[in-house]
Inverse folding.
């Protein structure tokens, strides 16, 4: 394409081209942002909602091993669900300082335990609390925080959880918990631009489709290769958790949550076996929930949304049903 | 600026149409069940 111009000076033409590019970029960002925001009034995008979660409900933690925390007393509507963070920074009701003889359990975990995409009263933490409390007075405190790995979960327990004097701690482990501690974005303000989030995540998704190694299967499997740094950090964190349980006298258990893409022929059996062996060596009772989901032929019926494989309310109910006996079992009380 | 915009209105329109086409193409090509790991979206 050639520019129709009466300028004969090449520098003037170059200047015009640069100005044209600048104007078109600004116009595109403004028009795209406004259009996307109008469209988002009628639809939710997982990636945009995650970005909003980070901007609205998270703050930096002083402890770099914890990384980030929930902003106390904050709230937002995410994935069309109301999310309220209490004054202690948890998605839970206000917690009494004293348990008054009630059996107190802390649930550690990431966005799955947090209950991403489901109402608070539909989370497995809430469902299990109700069922356990019906057996004997029990209080579950949900420490679930999005984007946490095992190291962060254990550090959060050591930093804040011990003050609650728990009788029992249950860590809900997910396949991505062997990831490194996530780094803060260098351009956090970009999270406020819907169009930036859209392009960033969609280009990543497209790259994953064209790449042989960027899909979820290869990505998660790579975290569990022998000698991987992430797996070593998981082990150190779990050993810390076991030591804390001995020092402070609380029971610990780990529940392995299934990845919800393929459940009949579960592709992460080896990875679950590896983490189960590690937990056995550290002497932490473990329940693998993947077999409890092996009859699900259409995994997407358990997803929060087509673009979001987090467990929906139906999956949370199944998690609660399948882990109740283990958490309530004699070894735990 | 007004003179500039009038002079290059067709160029500007074509460039914006290309940007729009890329955005719509990207949307359509990635509008499928999640196939990537959960993203890091921290702060």
């Amino acid at each position: 394409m050639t520019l129709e111009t009466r300028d004969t000076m090449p520098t003037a033409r170059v200047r015009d081209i640069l100005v044209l590019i600048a104007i078109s970029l600004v116009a595109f960002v403004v028009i795209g942002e406004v259009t996307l925001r109008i469209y988002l009034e009628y639809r939710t995008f997982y990636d945009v909602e995650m970005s909003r979660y980070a901007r609205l409900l998270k703050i930096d933690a002083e402890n770099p091993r914890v990384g980030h925390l929930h902003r106390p007393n904050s709230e937002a509507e995410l994935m069309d669900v109301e999310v309220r963070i209490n004054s202690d920074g948890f998605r839970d009701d206000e917690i009494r300082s004293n348990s008054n003889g009630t059996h107190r359990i802390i649930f550690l975990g990431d966005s799955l335990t947090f209950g991403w995409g489901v109402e608070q009263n539909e989370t497995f933490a809430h469902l299990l609390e109700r069922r356990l409390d019906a057996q004997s007075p029990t209080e579950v405190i949900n420490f679930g925080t999005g984007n946490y790995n095992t190291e962060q979960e254990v550090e959060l327990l050591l930093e804040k959880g011990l003050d609650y004097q728990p009788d029992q701690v249950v860590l809900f482990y997910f396949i991505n918990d062997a990831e490194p501690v996530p780094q803060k974005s260098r351009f956090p303000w970009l999270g406020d631009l819907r169009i930036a989030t859209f392009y960033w995540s969609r280009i990543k998704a497209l790259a994953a489709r064209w790449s042989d190694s960027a899909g979820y299967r290869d990505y998660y499997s790579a975290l569990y290769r022998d000698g991987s740094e992430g797996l070593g950090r998981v082990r150190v964190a779990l050993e810390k958790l076991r030591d804390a349980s001995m020092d402070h006298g609380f029971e610990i258990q780990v529940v392995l949550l299934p990845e919800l893409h393929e459940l009949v022929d579960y592709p992460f059996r080896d990875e679950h076996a590896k983490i189960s062996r590690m937990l056995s060596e550290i002497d932490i009772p473990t329940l693998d929930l993947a077999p409890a989901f092996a009859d699900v032929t259409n995994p997407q019926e358990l997803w929060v949304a087509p673009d979001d494989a987090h467990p929906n309310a139906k999956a949370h109910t199944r998690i609660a049903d399948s882990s109740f006996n283990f958490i309530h079992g004699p070894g735990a009380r | 600026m007004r003179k500039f915009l009038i002079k290059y209105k067709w160029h500007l329109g074509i460039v914006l149409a290309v940007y729009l086409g890329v955005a719509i193409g990207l949307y359509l090509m990635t509008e499928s069940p999640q196939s990537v790991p959960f993203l890091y979206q921290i702060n």
About this structure: The two ends of chain B are 38 Å apart (CA to CA). Chain B has a mean pLDDT of 78.
